[in-house]
Amino acid sequence: MDLNSFRSGSTGSDVSNACYPTVSSLPSRLFESLKFNPRNSPNTHFSTHFDANNLNPYFDSQEQYSSTDNISSNSTLDSHLIRSGGSFYNQHIRNALQQLETALMAPDDEEVTMSEPILAENSESQGRGRGPRPRASDQESQESHSHKSQESHNSRFGNSRNEPDSEGHRKDMEDFTLQGIPRHNLRQLLIACAIALFNHKLDEFEKLVVYARSIVSVSGEPIQRLGAYMIEGLIARKELSGTNIYRALKCDTPDSKDLLSYMHILYEICPYLKFGHMAANGAIAEACKNEDRIHIIDFQIAQGTQWMTLLQALAARPGGAPHVRITGIDDPVSQHARGGGLAAVGGRFAAVSEKFSIPIEFHAVPVYASDITRALLDVRPGEALAVNFPLQLHHTPDESVDVLNPRDGLLRMIKSLSPTVVTLVEQESNTNTAPFLPRFIEALDFYTAMFESIDVTMARDRKERIKVEEQCLARDIVNIIACEGRERVERHELLGKWCLRFTMAGFRQFPLSSYVNSVIRGLLKQYSEHYTLLETDGAMLLGWKDRYLVSASAWH
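RE: above sequence
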C-alpha cells in the first residue's frame, strides 16, 4: 500500500487530463512516466552489482527482526502451486534467491524464463522484514461472504454477473481440485491466477479469473476485498501490460474534498502514519533540542499536518522558541488532494506561528523529489538541518531503471548538506526488484495484513470504507501487479536495504528516542492488541500481528 496517500493523496509522476489538471508552468517531462497512478513519483529498482560475500554479514544482522524460519501451512501449498507452473524447482531455489536478494541484484526483467532460480518457493523467501505468514484460518474462512451491490464498484471489483453457470462451475472446481487448491482458499486461487498468467496459459487464467471474480467482494472479508483489486491488477497486466491502466480502473478520482475525507478516515482508523509522524518528530526534537535556528526539509509536505505538534512542542521550550524554517517539497499534482497549492500550507503555518508565538518561515518547492537540487533547498549557515522522507523515497528512481540512479544520488546530495538528522519512514515490503510472481505474493501478504487492520475498526458494509480502500490503496496494488519499468512506481524496500543505502551514502544511524517509543506503544493500545512494535538497532518496525508493515529510522 502506498501510505503516502495518507499525506497528500497524489504524488504522481504522470497525470491524466481526465483526472487532474496539468500544471502548464512545469516541463512536460515531469508528466511522461506513469499513466496510471497520479499519486506516485517516478521510481525504479536497485540493482548495483555488489560483492555478495561482503554484504551477507550485514543482512545476517537483520535476521533478528526478519525471520524466514517460520513457515505456515500456506507455505506448502504455495510451493505446490508455483511448482505446478514449471518443472525447474529444486532444493537450491531458496538459497539462490536469498543470495540474489542479499546482493541486491534481483532482476526486474519480464523476459525471465521459468528455468532461472528466481521465483520464491513461497513468499517466505521474500520475507525479510516479516514474521510468520498470515494465518490460514483467516484466509480460508470464505464460506459466508457478502455479494452486496456497490454501484460502479462491483462492475469492476467482484460482480455477480461474472458467476459461471452451474455446469461450468463444477468443471472449474474439478480443475482447481486437480491443482490442489482448497475450495474456499481465495489466497491460493489468486496465486494460481498469477501463475497461469505468468506462464501465458491464458485459457486457464480466464477460467480461474471467472471463478475468482464470483467470490471476491468489495464489502466482504479482508481477503475478498483485496482479491477484488488484485484480480483487477492481473487483468490489467494481461490486457495492457501497465501501459494504459486508466482504461482498466477508469479515472474516477473524487473531488478534492471527498479525497481528503477518505485520507483522513484512513489516517484515523489506522496508526501507520501517526507512527511515522511521532517517530520522525521525536528524532528531530532530540537532535535539535539545543538549537536556536532549525531548518526542516520535508520531501512530502502534503497538508503540513506532521509538523503541528512538533511546532507546539518547540514553542514551549523553557529557553524560548527557536526560529523554524520549513521547506515543503510536494509534486504539483498533490494540490488536488489539498484542494489548492502550497500557499494553503503556508497559511496553516502562519496561523500556528501567531497562536503559539514561534517564528516560522515557509518555503514552498512544488517539484518532484528526483528533480530537487541543492540550490532549491536554500540551506543557510548556522541552521540545524532536519530532512524528512515520509513514505516517499521509494518513489525516486534508482539505477535499475535510471542509469543516473537518482535515489542514491539524492541521498548523497542530502549528505553533502551535513544534516543534523535525516528521518526515514517506509513501507516494510520487498517490491522493488522482485520478479512478478514473488512480488505478487509479497503484495498479497502485505495488503492482507493492511486490509485486516482496517477490518477491525470499520464495518465491512460502510461505503466510506469501500471508498477508502479503493481511492487510497487499490491503485497502488494494481500498479505493483500490472506495471513494469518506469511505469511501476511502487518499489518498496525493506529496512535492511534502506540501512545499506544510507550507509553507502555516508550516513550513520541516529537512535530513535526511547521515550517516543514508549508513547507509540501507548498509542497502539488504543487501536488494537494485534498491532506490534519492534525496536531493532535504534530503528522501529510497526506490524499487524506477525507481519511488519512500516519502518522508521533516523540518520546523521
